[in-house]
Design brief:
By secondary structure, this protein is of the alpha/beta class. It has helices at about 10-20, 45-50, 80-90, 115-120, 150-160, 175-180, 185-200, 210, 215-225, 230-235, 240-255, 260-270, 270-280, 295-304, and strands at about 30-35, 55-60, 95, 125-130, 170, 205. A 6-stranded parallel β-sheet has the order 1-2-3-4-5-6.
Length: about 300
């Protein structure tokens, strides 16, 4: 968006953070500072976002521009100065919207072709690829390096740059998992190939639930999600173990932000949020209980 028409301003984001901070606990909310380097004044504003608003990462939309034209992170007049500025502020986490195209005018800039080269050039910067390049309406199948779109585009860009498992590129699942979970084959190939090619430490949970409401259905689906054994054997996908789920659900996100897992657990163990959570567990409202028959036998008896 233009600076004067942001749907969510930094002041509003900070007000939300203050609400969380008033819960007498640890630092539970991190802010992103919105930067579009193809918009005059945005790069210059990064110092204020870092110093005054204490942002923990930068959020950019490469397919957007004031004139409708996007940019690449590898562009010498926009993307590269943006990354250099991020490094100079000490906030070296860049979250990039890739996939979910806004339209055809700048469709090319929604693709992930610039991710690998940028990550290769700046190994000290972490790149979190929001939506992982996923395109709504396109099924995800086995990795096809010639496809150039969707999750395959991200994987190819990273691998062409010579980056392997555990690199500074992370695939985020906001909206992506919500779309994938509706189709068992797309879900298996989508999650399977991201873990296979980027590594089990480089896939991050996300829901985009600000658009969809409660993320509970996404959480429950991923808690029980499994890739069929024959599919795993055929394509070399990992089994979705409880350990892998825990990594994707949250542990993997600690690394790019420089948060120690032990410290996070210690701080969260007895803060106000945890106390309220425990109190809620004793008297749930709503209780989410399921009524009615739960087995075939119970259903037959119920019908009778």
């Amino acid at each position: 968006s233009r600076a004067d028409s942001e749907p969510l301003t930094i002041e509003e984001a900070d007000a939300t953070r203050q609400i969380i901070d008033q819960m007498e606990g640890s630092h539970r909310l991190l802010l992103h500072g919105r930067v579009n380097p193809n918009q005059p004044g945005d790069i210059e504003r990064m110092d204020e976002l870092a110093e005054r608003w204490k942002v923990s990462a930068w959020k950019t939309y490469t397919q957007w521009g004031p004139d409708g034209t996007g940019f690449y992170l590898s562009d010498e007049d926009t993307g590269l100065p943006f990354i250099e500025k991020a490094r100079s502020t000490g906030v070296k986490v860049i979250c990039v919207h890739k996939g979910i195209p806004f339209g055809q005018q700048s469709y090319e800039h929604s693709l992930c072709t610039d991710i690998g080269p940028a990550a290769k050039q700046f190994p000290d910067v972490n790149f979190l690829i929001y939506h992982s390049g996923w395109i709504p309406g396109q099924a995800e199948g086995p990795y096809d390096p010639d496809r150039g779109e969707g999750l395959d585009g991200l994987i190819r860009s990273v691998e062409d740059a010579g980056l392997g498992h555990g690199s500074n590129v992370y695939a985020e699942l906001g909206s992506t998992w919500r779309g994938l979970m509706r189709d068992v084959d797309s879900a298996a190939h989508g999650i399977g190939k991201l873990v296979k090619h980027l590594g089990e430490d480089n896939v991050l949970w996300g829901t985009d639930s600000i658009w969809y409401g409660s993320p509970q259905d996404q959480i429950q689906a991923f808690r029980t999600f499994q890739i069929a054994a024959d599919t795993r054997d055929r394509y070399g996908y990992a089994e979705i173990t409880q350990e892998l789920r825990a990594k994707i659900f949250g542990l993997n996100a600690l690394k790019p932000y420089g948060i120690a897992a032990d410290e996070a657990r210690m701080r969260a163990a007895g803060d106000k949020v945890s106390e309220q959570r425990e109190a809620y567990a004793e008297r749930r409202d709503p209780h989410h209980l399921t009524f009615g028959p739960k087995t075939r036998r119970e259903f037959i008896l119920f019908q009778g």
